[in-house]
Design brief:
single chain; alpha/beta; two-stranded antiparallel ribbon; 9 helices; 7 strands; 48% helix; 14% strand; globular; disordered N terminus
Length: 228
């Protein structure tokens, strides 16, 4: 079965995409944590975009490079992280999201669940999700405030650096963080243009309280012992 969303045909053979609740936004906002909390609380099926994109999609990434006449090897790390600018990095990232989103949709189409699916990840962009959903209440965009982002970078091991072997690891990390900020700002502009809710995470609430806010947005019933 296909659905028409504007001018776009969305292939949804099992009706899976109609069940999805979407969390997009910026890096380090707690999207994965909130999705896991809601999945456990409500028995939802969680889909973590970053995990699938970094692992399950690599064969598609290589095949696409070959199709475009490029080397199948990963791009040179020095070129990717050091000898570049955050603005160029952000532009390349945003330009690549539509192709990667189609891969995510293929993953989601293959899922079957008696309950809704909650999908989270920075590549689940508002402008890409909007043609699929029947209501803006089926998506939320989470972004960290500057202070919370700095805290996450200090405290999260996976945010601590790009890795060893680069000529200028400090510059690579600065480029990465600035890129992430630019990509997040672009997601916020897109969400507000479309009318999708943006939640700024500042660290004043714990993950469970942020999950409560997202649950309310998705019209999921709050547990009896929790209030907003």
């Amino acid at each position: 079965m296909s659905e028409r969303a504007g001018e776009r045909e969305v292939w949804d053979p099992f009706g899976t995409l109609r069940q999805v609740l979407w969390i997009g936004g910026g890096q380090w906002a707690g999207k994965s944590t909130v999705a896991r909390i809601l999945a456990g609380r409500y028995g939802l099926t969680a889909y973590h975009y970053d995990y699938h994109d970094a692992r399950g999609h690599n064969d598609r990434r290589i095949a696409r490079r070959v199709k475009l006449g490029h080397s199948p090897k990963d791009p040179d790390p020095e070129t990717t992280w050091v000898n570049t600018t955050p603005r160029d990095m952000a532009a390349d990232t945003i330009a690549g999201f539509p192709v990667r989103f189609e891969w995510a949709l293929d993953d989601l189409r293959a899922l079957s669940s008696g309950r809704s699916i909650i999908a989270e990840g920075w590549g689940l962009r508002p402008e890409l999700v909007a043609p699929i959903i029947d209501s803006p209440r089926r998506m939320v965009v989470m972004v960290p405030t500057a202070a919370f982002r700095e805290r996450q970078v200090r405290e999260l091991a996976r945010a601590g650096g790009i890795g060893h072997g680069l000529s200028d690891p400090a510059r690579a990390q600065r480029n990465r963080l600035e890129r992430d900020l630019l990509v997040a700002e672009d997601a916020v502009r897109s969400a507000r243009r479309i009318g999708i809710r943006v939640i700024e995470v500042d660290g004043s609430r714990d993950a469970g309280a942020v999950a409560d806010i997202v649950a309310e947005h998705f019209c999921l019933p709050l547990p009896e012992n929790r209030t907003l």
